[in-house]
Amino acid sequence: GESVGLHLPTLSVQEGDNSIINCAYSNSASDYFIWYKQESGKGPQFIIDIRSNMDKRQGQRVTVLLNKTVKHLSLQIAATQPGDSAVYFCAEHTSGTYKYIFGTGTRLKVLA
Amino acid sequence: KAGVTQTPRYLIKTRGQQVTLSCSPISGHRSVSWYQQTPGQGLQFLFEYFSETQRNKGNFPGRFSGRQFSNSRSEMNVSTLELGDSALYLCASSIQGGSGELFFGEGSRLTVL
Fold this sequence. Notes:
The structure holds two protein chains of two kinds. Chain A is mainly β. Chain A is 0% helix and 51% strand. Chain B has strands at residues 5-7, 10-13, 19-24, 31-38, 42-50, 53-57, 64-68, 74-78, 87-94, 103-104, 108-112. The termini of chain B are far apart. The mean pLDDT of chain B is 96. Classes of the chains: A mainly beta, B mainly beta.
């Protein structure tokens, strides 16, 4: 498949372990955040979102944490599976801009 | 429900040519955004359209343009292609833009020789 990014930071985890992917965002006025997953040759796929009035949100096997004080987001994936191998991006949105600013991405490799 | 459809999926052009990429959003979605994805720069915002109006434009030269039609379909055009324009061009749609999930297409991969 096509490579999304040749020099992305890579996180390697054992199958069944928990993964934590971090992201620093740029604008303290950003009020909405999304985590996306991108598999080789595909477009980004929504995982989970969080608004700035929250600091934690949980989905199925995933949790997003937001720390506005240090402008930091994290994505936690429980019991990581081979199908979780992909590139993960955080994206921030500021009200009224109609655009998202994406982070540089992290490649997650799940080891069998 | 059909997803976001982008055509063509792959294309090869030479420097100086122009290219037009097409995007059909999810039915009922009125906002369409375009992003350029390269290994070096990641995903960069190009523009966003809602009801045929461009509401925001990214920091790209004037060679990059777009439009949206009354049925919400969108096109983007790149004129006088340069080698650095080689990228995956992603289209995303949402119900009304702003905050909320963006649904991405598979992208159009442009190679400029």
